[in-house]
Each structure stands twice: as C-alpha cells, then as structure tokens.
C-alpha cells in the first residue's frame, strides 16, 4: 500500500514536471525572440545615449531627458494604444478566428496614427514644457532642439507596436527579431560615423535614430503584407473602419494602464531634475534607468509570452491552462531578475563608464547601484503580472491600481524623502521602489484570486463584441478576394 502511494506520488510529480516543461517550451517559443527583439529595439536609444554621453554632460542630460520625459510619456501612450491588439489578437487566435487579425491590425494602425498626430505638440514644445517643470534652461533648450528632430520616430512607434502584437499573437516573432538585430547593428555603425568621425553631434544622433526606426518599420511592414500570413492578412479592407469606437475604448484602457506605469518613471526624472546640481543628478539617474529598462526588456519578453499564452487559452476556453501559464512565467522571469541583480552589484563600479568619462558622474551612478539592483529584482515579476492583465483584458482595473500605488504612495514618499529629509536621488528612488513593490503585491493578489472560468467566458464575449460575426466576416473577405 505504501509502495503504491509512493508510486502515485512520483507519477504525479513526473506529470507536473512534464507539464511545466511543455509550458516552458511554449513560453520560450515566444519569449526568446521577443526578448531579443525588445532588447534590440530599446538598444537603439541605448546606443544613442552611449555615443552622446561622450559629447558632454549637458548633451547626455538633454537626450536622457527627452528619452525619459517626452518619449517616455509618448512611448507609454503609443504602446498602450497598440496593446489592445494583445488582448484581441491573442483571444482571436485561441478561438481560431485568424481572419480577424488583419482587420484588428488595420484598426490599430488607424488609431495609433491619429494618436501620433495628436502627440506632435509634445515634441514641438519640449523646451517650454521642461522649463515649466523647472528643468535647467540649458538642458531644456538643447532637449527641445533634439526633440524636434526625432518627431519621425513618433510615427514609427504608431506602426511598430501594432505589428509587434500581430506577430506575437501568432508566435511569429523570429523575423521581427532578426530585423531588429540588423537595424541595431546599422544604428551603432552609423552613430559612430555621424557622431564620432564626422562630428555631427546631437543632430547626427537624432537623424541616425530616425533612419534606423524607418528601416525597422519598412522591413516589418513588407514582411506582414507580402503573403506570409494568408489567413491573417488578406489585404487592406474597409472593415477596418467598422466598430472603431469599441476598439478605441479598449485601446484607451490599455494606454491609460501603461501610461500611468511609464509616467511614474518620467515623474521620477522630473523630481531629480529639480535637485541641486541637476545635470549630475539627472545623468546618474538616467544611466541607471537605461540599465534598468534594458533589464526590463527581458521581463517584457515574458510579459509578451504570458499575455499571448493567457489570451490564447482564454480564447480557446481553457482557464486552467491559462492559470498554469502564469505560474511558469512568473517563476522564470523572477530567476532572470535575480541574475541581473547580482550582475549589477558585481559591476557597480564599472557599468557607469560605458556612458560617461566624468569621474563625478561615475561616482554618483555607482552609489545608486543598490537601488538599481532592488528595482531590477522587483521589475522582473511586475511586467509578467501586467502581461496577465493584458491577456485577460483587465486594463481598467490595473489602471486604478497604478494610480493608488504610484501616485498616492510612491511619488509623495519619494518627494518627502528627497526634499524634506534631504536624501536627494536616493530618497526619490526609495519612493519609486515603494510604489513598485506595492503594485506587484496587489497585482499578485488579484491574479491569485481571479476566477479564470469567468475570464474565459468574458473572452468569448469580447471576441463577439469587437470581432463581429465570424461567418459574415469570412464571407465578406471571400467576396472581396
């Protein structure tokens, strides 16, 4: 009897290990290339900062402020508007409605392009905006000059994010990854030519960034429309203009959720810019933030993977499989977070030198290494929980959680510690950590208590609401062909 019980226990354990391994393979099929693509695309800005940092403290601060304040604001909104596809495309794939993916993509392009037009003034009026936010005059003027030259990248975001979600939902990420790697290599080479050899400085860096993003978008668009997706892409259609209002609502919910997340880090940079010696403080903080976001790209790969897996399984009516996917993704991403945390602590006196040769900036950046390590560890879990939220369509609820954790607790605590208690950057960063940790805990509780059977039923209803009748759509596409 005891032997039978032991045998059953071993059998159950082996079954669980096998199930975890199968889920891990499905996750890595999307997460692996998504991580590489995300790192490469983020590294376009990373490389720009690395080259500009050797021009001077003011140039480094100017580009860092544009990337973290203006582009951080815009990037979050554009990514959010495009992230509605993550829910809809993923659930459509799970339900077998591949014919809707191309229509969803075109609807998203319409919405994100209009959004880009609305956001142009933030680039045009960067200087007065930064001055209003009490940033230094010299940094504000130079930031405004740089921002006007990178406006084309705003429209690149409008095309890029919907394509990403379209490809990820179908597990077709490797071509996007290869394109991103080639463009990154081109970007690094051209920055060396324009900034270092030809001496075009800030202007050269901005133009090279525009060209690199343009090539990235052109290559990805050609891939999508060239016949590689016969079921999902059947050409441009007037169906894309139908039911835009419902699509906009979900897009706005996604945008608000992500914006509240990314604007939080923007607000941190603004608070740091109001300290004494803002150039040094902003430089040190920006170097750490760049590294933190680079590490975040790995977690965002798992974010993309778990979002696809959850939305696919909910769309297919498999709530237990969706819940199991979440557990595997959280554990894997947390392991990588631990590895990155150790790497930062070991190299705390070395990594600042990649960005600057100024001893004072290197020294101030090294002092923040422990805060950076703690943030990276927290950020390894948080994006995965966000991926669950997007896959399940919880965007509105997460937006409320973000407001409370970040803006009711995190920012006020950071401001009090940084200014009232004269802790400077360390105090502000402590507040940021409090907000991040609180949000992670709340999202984890929400995920554990979720009724996954109910979420599967809501996914079915969502497909009907935003997709329309699948049979009628198929008939329309067949007639158009």
TrEMBL record:
Main location: membrane
Protein's name in the database: Protein DETOXIFICATION
Membrane-crossing residue ranges in chain numbering: 30-53, 109-133, 145-167, 173-195, 202-230, 250-275, 287-306, 326-347, 368-385, 397-421, 428-448
Pfam family, one: MatE
Keywords annotated in UniProt: Membrane, Transmembrane, Transmembrane helix
GO BP term, example: xenobiotic detoxification by transmembrane export across the plasma membrane
Family: Belongs to the multi antimicrobial extrusion (MATE) (TC 2.A.66.1) family.
GO CC term (a single one): membrane
Membrane topology term: Multi-pass membrane protein
Keyword Membrane recorded: yes
Protein species of origin: Papaver nudicaule (Iceland poppy)
Keyword Nucleotidyltransferase: no
Coiled coil region boundaries: none
Subcellular location: Membrane
Molecular-function GO term, any one: antiporter activity
């Amino acid at each position: 009897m005891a032997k039978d019980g032991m045998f059953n226990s071993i059998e159950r354990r082996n079954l669980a290990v096998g199930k975890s391994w199968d889920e891990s393979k499905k996750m890595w099929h999307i997460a692996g290339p998504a991580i590489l693509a995300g790192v490469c695309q983020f590294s376009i800005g990373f490389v720009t900062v690395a080259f500009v940092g050797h021009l001077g403290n003011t140039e480094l601060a100017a580009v860092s402020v544009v990337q973290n304040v203006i582009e951080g604001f815009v990037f979050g909104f554009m990514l959010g508007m495009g992230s509605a596809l993550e829910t809809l495309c993923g659930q459509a794939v799970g339900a077998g409605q591949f014919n809707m993916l191309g229509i969803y993509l075109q609807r998203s392009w319409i919405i994100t392009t209009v959004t880009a037009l609305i956001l142009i003034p933030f680039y045009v009026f960067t200087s007065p905006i930064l001055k209003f936010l009490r940033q230094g005059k010299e940094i504000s003027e130079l930031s405004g000059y740089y921002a006007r030259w990178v406006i084309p990248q705003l429209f690149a975001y409008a095309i890029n994010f919907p394509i990403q979600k379209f490809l990820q939902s179908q597990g077709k990420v490797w071509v996007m990854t290869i394109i991103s790697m080639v463009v990154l290599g081109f970007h690094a080479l051209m920055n060396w030519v324009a900034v270092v050899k030809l001496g075009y400085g800030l202007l050269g860096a901005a133009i090279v960034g525009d060209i690199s993003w343009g090539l990235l978008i052109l290559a990805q668009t050609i891939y999508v429309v060239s016949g590689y997706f016969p079921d999902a892409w059947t050409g441009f259609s007037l169906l894309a203009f139908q039911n835009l209002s419902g699509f906009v609502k979900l897009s706005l919910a996604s945008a608000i959720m992500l914006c509240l997340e990314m604007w939080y880090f923007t607000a941190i940079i603004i608070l740091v810019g109001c300290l004494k010696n803002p150039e040094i403080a902003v430089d040190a903080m920006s170097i750490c933030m760049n590294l933190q976001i680079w590490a975040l790209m790995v977690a965002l790969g798992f974010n993309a993977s778990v979002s696809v897996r959850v939305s696919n399984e909910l769309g297919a009516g498999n709530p237990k499989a969706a819940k199991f996917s979440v557990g595997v993704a959280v554990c894997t991403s947390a392991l990588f977070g631990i590895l990155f945390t150790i790497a930062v602590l070991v190299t705390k006196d070395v990594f600042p030198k990649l960005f600057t040769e100024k001893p004072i900036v290197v020294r101030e950046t090294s002092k923040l290494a422990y805060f950076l390590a703690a943030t990276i560890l927290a950020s390894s879990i948080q994006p995965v929980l966000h991926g669950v939220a997007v896959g399940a369509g919880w965007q509105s609820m997460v937006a409320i959680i973000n407001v409370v954790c970040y803006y009711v607790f995190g920012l006020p605590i950071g401001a009090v510690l940084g200014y009232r208690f004269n802790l400077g950057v360390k105090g502000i960063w402590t507040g940021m950590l409090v907000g991040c940790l609180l949000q992670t805990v709340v999202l984890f509780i929400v995920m554990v208590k979720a009724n996954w059977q109910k979420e599967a039923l809501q996914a079915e209803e969502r497909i009907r609401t935003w997709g329309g009748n699948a049979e009628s759509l198929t008939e329309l596409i067949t007639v158009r062909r």
